[in-house]
């Protein structure tokens, strides 16, 4: 007898990142035993895919091919798999999904959930935390109570900066604020080589602010076009929204109209526009500082979703973070359900050896930590800056079956200088627009506000970030050091007083 399709799928997925608890597996097998002993309709309804039947058989076909090649597991096949999965996550996270065809499948699922089981949220079986089901979305909508936002281009000002908000929009169309999470990030065009690995791992909306003063505008536009048209998949088109900003002292001579340039595909034989020596950019040649927080804030303000993950563009999140995190929020177990303090969800950070690809799972990461091909972030640059509370316990603890809050930390004591990177919301404090990247400690003012407001830092059990491969060592940078001492005294003499007046001072809160 042929092995039922879904078993093939479960087996495969376990090799990757698919996690189903033993209890749930039992429930599934129990049901299937019954199903197959009776009349044998195709078992494909069991695939936890919410789209229509054709999608499902495509998945089965794909996974069989994938299994054949498994011994030969190259980066290319990983890419292919991630690409495939993107369609699935896109289908499950976007509002445009056609679900009518799956109604018979969900009828069946309801009957299965009548089988006694420990998990109490199994109204749609089997429970796959990498997929957002309709009932999860309904729960999220109720829990978050957020407001959907408009998604149209605007030209605005932010201090001395002009902002072309939603200059080139992702093709995903309007988004409901509870249905996905936005990574918000920023950079000069010379950093855009990071965008493809970022979107391949994130598979959800990205709001990206590009600093494009003067003649950096044209290569920025060309980079956007190249990334949308020439990367071999449509993830950038699907997910990434580009904003442009520049100082009013460095307005580009010509601002191309996206409605015009998006009409014709980019010539992909031209050189990669962002592959330049960074010392050749307008920003470097005119010796401008990088307004890192202006970029961060523009990207965050434009995000359409309730939850946001503000990242520097060289940090790549662990795959499936979006559905895993949102499913965790929907389950609403303690401490989520019992704490009413303001909260954010920090991720653990790592660097990896240049010759390796970023790990896909915590298990793989732990293997790399053991043989030192991965290390905690900035271990050789600023070990205390990114040390997270209970960090060594986090590294030692095995992956949990489902995403959960591993530990609730505070920014105090040994961690009073912590600059966490986290999933947060629009109600969190912004970064201070006046601080430059060159001046360092640019996230500290926000972290101080969190401390003063008694935020809880709910560290996620299975989620992590990996820096673009390559381990960093401390290198003296006299230019940065000069700005760093200037910025430190500005923070001390000016910003500190402001924050104390506005947010109050709390013992143990350090700026
Ligand atoms: C495995 O990889 C090698 C080298 O890349 C290739 O020649 C071979 O065809 C692959 N085998 C399969 C089954 O894909
Ligand atoms: C949904 O189904 C309807 C009717 O079958 C079809 O017209 C429409 O194009 C489908 N939409 C999508 C997004 O597949
Ligand atoms: C589910 O259970 C109900 C009542 O027990 C039964 O009438 C129905 O046929 C079942 N549906 C399926 C798809 O097994
Ligand atoms: C999801 O469930 C809600 C409530 O049960 C229902 O109103 C809605 O139509 C469903 N959406 C889809 C796409 O099936
Ligand atoms: C695309 O660029 C290549 C390399 O510069 C050039 O040879 C080719 O003619 C261009 N194609 C088109 C259609 O412009
Ligand atoms: C970039 O250009 C500068 C100055 O022109 C040069 O010193 C440096 O080596 C170049 N870097 C790379 C990676 O080519
Ligand atoms: C280190 O561990 C990882 C994950 O287990 C493995 O892929 C890699 O080959 C190992 N590298 C060395 C040098 O041992
Ligand atoms: C780490 O967590 C454990 C329990 O999870 C707790 O007992 C311990 O005090 C924590 N350590 C630190 C340094 O926070």
UniProtKB/TrEMBL annotation:
The chain crosses the membrane at residues 16-34. Keywords: Membrane, Transmembrane, Transmembrane helix. It holds the Pfam family Glyco_transf_49. This is Beta-1,4-glucuronyltransferase 1. It comes from Spodoptera frugiperda (Fall armyworm).
